[in-house]
Amino acid sequence: MAGTKHDQNLASGKTPKVVHDDGAKGSSKKRKAESSEVTESSSKKVRHRVASPMVIIWNTHGETDTEEPTKKRKRQPVETETAEDVQPLPTTNSVEPSATRDEGIVVEEEDMADAEEEEIIQPRTVSEEQDGGGELEEDVEMATAENAVEDEVVEPGATTTGEVSEAKEAERAVVVKNGADPSKSSTKLSKLQRQQNRKLELSKLSLGEHEVQREKAEVDMNKAKNKEARIEKGRIVQERAQELAREVKMFKREGLAETAVAGWHVKEVRKQKKRPAWSLSNTVAGRFINHDPIFAKDSPTGDAVLITATDREILVLSVETSLPVRTYALRRGVSICSFSLDNADPESLHIVCDNGLSFTWRWSADGSGPQDLEPSDATFVAGGLANDRGPGLLYLKKSKGNSAIWSSRSLYTASKRLDEIQTVSDGDYVIAYGPEALVLGMRKDTGKKSNDYIWAELPMSTAVTCMDARVIESDSTSKKDKRPARISLAVGKTDGKIHLYDDVTSVFADHRQASLPTPRVLHWHREAVSAVKYSRDGSYLISGGKETVLVLWQLNTEKKQFLPHLTSEIERIVVSPEGDRYAIQMGDNSIMVLSTSELKPVANFAGLQLACPILRSSPTTVEYEHEMQNSKSVAAVLHPRHANQLLLAVPATQPKTSTNAAEARPFLQTFDTRTSRHVTRQALTRNNVTDLNLGPERTPVAPSDTTHVSISDDGQWLATVDEWMPPASDVEFLTTSWEELVEERRKRREVYLKIWRWDEAQGLWTLSSRVDAPHARAAKQTQGAGRILALVADPVSAGFATLGEDGRVRIWKPKTRVRHGVAMKGDGDVELVEWVCKRTVELPLGSEDGRADSPVDTARDHVPLKACLAYSEDASLLAAALTSAAHTTTLVHFLDTSSGDIKATKSGFAGGEHLEHVGFLDRYFITVVRDAVQIWDLVTDALQQRMVLPSGATLLAINSADGTFAVAVDSRINVYKPAETWAVHKDDCHQYITALLAGNGNKGYMLLFDDATIRTLALTGAPMRRALPDAPAAPKAPELTIEFGPPQDERLADDAEMAEVLALPAADTKASGLILDEAEDDRPVVRPEQLASILDVGQSFAMLPVRDMFEAVVGLYGRRPLVHAAA
Amino acid sequence: MDIRQHVGVSSTMDVHRARFVPYPTSAISALAFSRSSDSGYTGAFPALRLAVGRANGDIEIWNPLKGQWVQETVCLGDGKSVDGLAWTQDPDEVDSEGTVLPGQQRLFSIASSQAVTEWDLARSEPKRKSTGNFSEVWCFAAQPRWKTSKNAQDEPRSQDMVAGCGDGTLVLLSTADNDLQFKRFLARVAGKRARCMCITYQNRDVVVAGFADSMIRIYDTRNNSQVRQMSLGIGLPGAPKNAFVWTIKVLPNGDIVSGDSNGEVRIWDGRNHSLVQRLTGHDNDCLDLVTSADGHTILSGSIDGRMSIYRQTLGEGGRKSWAKHSHRRAHSGEVKAMAAFDSKNGLSVVVSGGSDAAPMLTPLREHGKENSRSLSSLPQQPKIVSARKARLIASWWEKEISIWRIARQAAIDDVPQPEKPRKLVAKLSLDVKQAIRSVSVSADGKLLAAVTASEIKVFQLRRRTDSDGLAVRKVHAPQEFTSLGARLLSFSADAKWLAVVTPDSEVHIARFAEDPEQPKQLRCLPHTIELDRRHSKRAPSSLSEYDRALVRVAFASDSSVLVAGDVSGYLDSWVLEGHEDLTATAVDITKHDSDKVSSNDGSDAESDSSDDDDDALVIFYGQHWTDNPAGHLLPKLDSAPLALTFRPTILTAQALTNGNPGVHSTRHNPHAHSHALPPGEHRLWIMTARHEMYELDVLAGRLSDWSRRNPTAALPEAFRQIKDRVMDAVWDVAGQHQRLWLHGTSWVFMLDVGGDSMDAESVALTKKRKRKARNGNGEERSAKRHQLGSGAGDRVESERSLGPQSLTRTENGHRANIDLTRSEQNADEDEDVEVDSDLPALQLARLRSNGSKGEVARRDQGTEGQRKWWCTFKYRPILGMVPLEDATIPEEDRMLEVAIVERPI
Predict the structure, then answer these.
(1) ipTM at complex level
(2) Which of A561, A736, A1104, B877 is the most exposed, having the fewest neighbouring CB atoms within 10 Å of its CB?
(3) CA A635 to CA A668: how far, in whole Å?
(4) Which residues of B touch A412 (CB under 8 A)?
């Protein structure tokens, strides 16, 4: 391999750097969200161009920037919208801005506008993404890896001279992580290490090294190609040095990073350099966990911040700006249970995860990592975290049927479930509660900070929903009162009462004297009290519940103040330490900060209000299930003009309990995905969030559910479909059986098509037309309104098309209202428009499909369950298809939108399969059936391609702008180009995708996940970030197109190799050697398994068509060399 | 409405469910305890009573009986609403022997008039009124009791009273010397709206009054000066401009608490009269409030029926502050009046009343840990009587008597000519001054007697021939008899005797017989007699006269024994000597046997009848009433008897010679009369206010054997848990069984008293328990006292309790369960506590029967198969249950037939 010593040095000097670069890329993604994908990719592309010069200049420039990274890191907390521009701080090195500027210049070469936009708006400094390899490892392994990393980091630091830059140090650390000593030949050392390390790690390491080698080769190539870039090398190097240093920090901090990831980064980078790549952005949005936010002071700025968390991220939110200041993300697969500020050091945040890991994060300093990773043996931490100087960290641990209060050891095991814990008076008292019990602990000896507690467990007759404790220091003058303090307790119950205990310390009295006076009862809430808190001075009690009313109880006079008509039910209330703010976490995934004095909102943090996935138990009938499933598909669109605005039908409140009322989505939320900010929310249907929403029988009144949303091309018109059925309990008396009940409900179904016009002045959608019952019910039933199964917008002009269960397609067009031949004008000189059904086309209902004559058809079989509707790009053609239970094959009808004629009817799109989605892309017609994607050439009227998908719920999005379409199956997403025979991009997001939306322009795709997070998948012009490594998915999940897609693409080949290597770690030497060779001559290597996967399908009838097979084989061998591909 | 139904299979009884009796209930307008707490008393506590004043002017005296609440007596009013009640107690006196005679407790009331009325509790009627030159009295209050101070030269002083009038005048009245005298005007507040709404004493010298002009004024009675006035400010938006101070009370520490028409409760400092705190307790007017004895709890009641409780707690920095604890809708109407009694260990309740007429008991000390309980709004003594043979039932209120006839079942079911199930056959509006206190009808329905406090009226009823109605004829009785007035009366079973209890609790008897001239008419024999009551030595009591008031009177089924029981539980009994001799003179008056030698000639008896001296002996048809020779052996009951009834004895046909054999008038013995005592057993079955059950053999003066075997403890658990007291009892002795049907306002209970109804084990258990208690370790006693509830309802069930009732305490890994309620399990235990000391005789009897355990068991087996008891709560509230009889059915087939008169709520 390495020939001369110089070469070796060079290699060794370079290799780590490259590794670093990639590592930086990988983890910069983790924490660096301020720069957009595009920006990053562009900057990196530049970097790569000058990759080899860097190697030379490294040592000279690296030293100058020793302090730089840390400074930058420290600045990052305050980076907000204009982060890049306001970089200079008093301490800033002058070099730094130039580097930034360089970056900017480089960006200009690429796509200036986009980049800047992205840069400015992405406010985050820290974000995830610790996926892929991380998931492979178990926690223990992770912990050891972490330790190893830490050790290694310290060691080089100790041995290196004072001149050694932090960046270099970091570099080494990473190399160590990769299993190689920077001072030696990486290959050899990796061998050594292999013997010492565990198998899995080993394999990854080897791979990483192998990648390093390949990287080197590539860098050489690039060097030749990109000589002109050398002039910028100095700055680039600086920048890189910073990044590297940052990376090191990241690795240190995350502790969750591991070698394999780093290795993968290498590979990814190498690939991405070669041509534009698809990449997933980091996650935005998410749901706040059900935990009290914490008010804190941000030490650098002194600003008030609110610390809260989503499942995977700790967020520090600025109360001043309503923006996140910094975030800290966990790797996937771990969710945050609870967090708490350290009492002694309010800048440290203790975090407990659901797998029992707890660690400390210095939240005030940006970029600091978890300092204290203490794996506990807790199998599951129920949450509830309290921190104290005395006992240290207290948390609740759940075991079978009961809960324990833990610190370093089990302090108390309760017989009932406990949910939350609170300490007061420096840990002299510990109070924990669950629905059925209240546990009070008093430290035996208040003087010493021991962990000896006296515990009292009080069973509760009505379930406790919330609790707040408050210590009242007793008057020092009061005589012989030995008790240090009195503990007041406010306990909220499910029956809407708040019980107020003035002093609960009496329960700790001796056996005979122990008593508990009857509590004060505050009863205003109709339903369960969700949150209750004392004000700072104890004279008020603040409570909230489902009524969407904040109640302030003046405890002395029994007077109540109300803040009614909040947008959603109150889940959490927190009072700031100064008492001047209330933070209210609400059911619509938002946190509002109110000023105490005026009850005016100070800040609002609204998340994406995507409806929670509801785990449906006890399936009723398959049909009903199916119907519900369909109706619950996410109704969301992207605004065509404002590419980052996501319009989403959302529920009034995130359902805590599965009721009809909670599931319905009567609101439209506009969410800016770029800034991860809530824009507006408006009601689309009648709703009763803030009214009395219980019927006479105390059943919730169900609002309508918005099932479809569509927006016209010009962004002026929004069409929504909402549906309402009376709750089953209302019509139950009419029926005797389930079927009758379903029928009775359907008879009373109400369906409205509403068309809204954008009112620029008000910034609202105003209702323009409402169509009652636009479609009839299937099977010619007259009672009730038929469901609308599909709604699409005309891609060219204002207009919508609907397809209802009656099998009709209706095309809706605006019509200017004319009076006496003059167009009527409304307010603001807007032409009054009414929407009319311009055309109705009845689809022939399966008469040709051979099953129609079946006499056993019941009316129910004809009820279409699923409909596909798609406009062609020029809106001349409309494809419509209906699937019902009776038909196995689905017909696709092509309608001429101008005449309304059915131009053609085709079957065979879904032979024996359910047609899930259809779409036009250029001259191709794309159908998604279960387990496959088919691309039809409409010109030749032939099936061009068929690509197999894994089974699962599919989503289709077509982006005509870049000529691609994407198919999502559960958590995986594939991007295709019709002309190409393989997936352009494949990814596994490890999170269930609930909606897939085609971005406008070249934005690629937007993915909505069921945890209310959003990511974008975009084609970036240059290597910028690694795509998500799908390494972990390889061994366990089947590749999306493993049958069909021959890994002609090198990336796929790599996938396969990796899979092999993972499977056979013993053959490492050989493998790496081989791969190294292969990397150098860059010819496709086709392994027998790959061939077998194409040819060896077992039964001859299951074989692919000959043409497909041929293409597949050619795909294996006929790959273009990588170099050319990159060019 | 009349619903006829059969009850149960094994305990057959025909029930006429009657809801047609329009008995009016009256709202509660005033409440007062005779003392508010146990503190401040030296020596024995004076008797505790609760006076309940109603809108119709009635005042009911309730005895809390340590939580067993029984309505003892009712003072019928004149129809004017009782607006206020107050008790005073005269200073204690020491008699010549050095024993302390407790001062008498006196009850005063005001009733929308210009007078303060004192009530004679023993007679249950107004005693005196104090009027003066002042306008209508709106409120009044009694001065706190005088307390012995260190300088002993102070003479004990009586309590004054202060009355607030509608014109803003405050009047001082003196109760000294067992009188009620106008003392002087305290103040006169000028102004249009200066009506005094409420008044109270802050201490013995300072009076605090609330006015309708939203002012609170404080006066010093020593110098008639106004100390201070505080304003509530203007009313809340929407309320009248001037807030009414509806109620004002003073806490033990001198702080003043006011409740006003804004629904606010305000606490004022007692010394500097500054506003300490204002609490928004109600959305509407706060009409009344009470405070606990320790001054840490306030309860207020509002016009919407809500009661709020406030507690004083330590606030921030050890500062005491009041806070509303909780509220509860206690009444369906408003809460008009509240009264509290709060002792440290025993009773601690708040009684509230309003337009829903039922007093509500709310625990005070144990608030939240004990349930509230509603007492009955109906009178304890049934206001329903029946003539069982004539199938008439009569009910009365105010000055009216209504009589219905209940059709026979057969007649109702008669297909061709169905009869109306019931018919109002007579309605008597009496020309009397006061309301009717009691009515009695003879079993054959021929005689009806009605009494008021000053009149006795007797009527003969006869069925009209032409219609269903009744012809009513007044029966003339001697003037001196009818003018006695009465509180109780009873016809004997054979309708020959009428016993009346006068307001002074004397017992008089009149004899009715057919008029020899007009055989169809009944007449009252011209002479009536008074029966002497035994004067046993009684413990000095603060209600000494009241304690002797007779509350129940009963004739034996053969009319030969009369028993009367008084409030304190003493029984008086009389027997009818001799045999009826219709040939003898109707009325023969003679001297007692002891001095018959010196007898005058009997001819002047008639003229001398008014001179009814004790020595006179009146013989009616050869029979005369005399004291029961064994009467002194009858024990004092633990409390007032509520059900007093003789076990019916099936008379063995005593076909002896008519009259008194061998008793003939001779010259030496012109008024010969027999001294033969009535034959047979006369077993008196008693249930007292404590629901203790006794059966006494009256002529033997001891407990009957049955009672020895079946003490109270042997009553089924289901019965012992019943809280409403027994009202009356109906015997069912047809056939083989001997059953007793008891009823209270909410329950009907059948008890088989033929055999031994009880299981031996529980009896034995009780005895053991009792013996232990008697062995007299004070600990046990005190522990038991501790176990007593606070006088309201039972302990709150754990699932409904406000706070937790128990906790698990863990220390050093050692777990212990602690009960936070400290409640006590069985309510039946407390009932036994008091018995021991009072009833040595009973105790002895029980102990003696201890040996007969085997017998009990055997008898148990013998009566196996029959229900021993049966209980229902489905009739409510019951005004009365009276027996009826269908003479057409042969006696052996007859089932018990009763009419249960309900008052729909």
Answers:
(1) 0.76
(2) A736
(3) 10
(4) 810
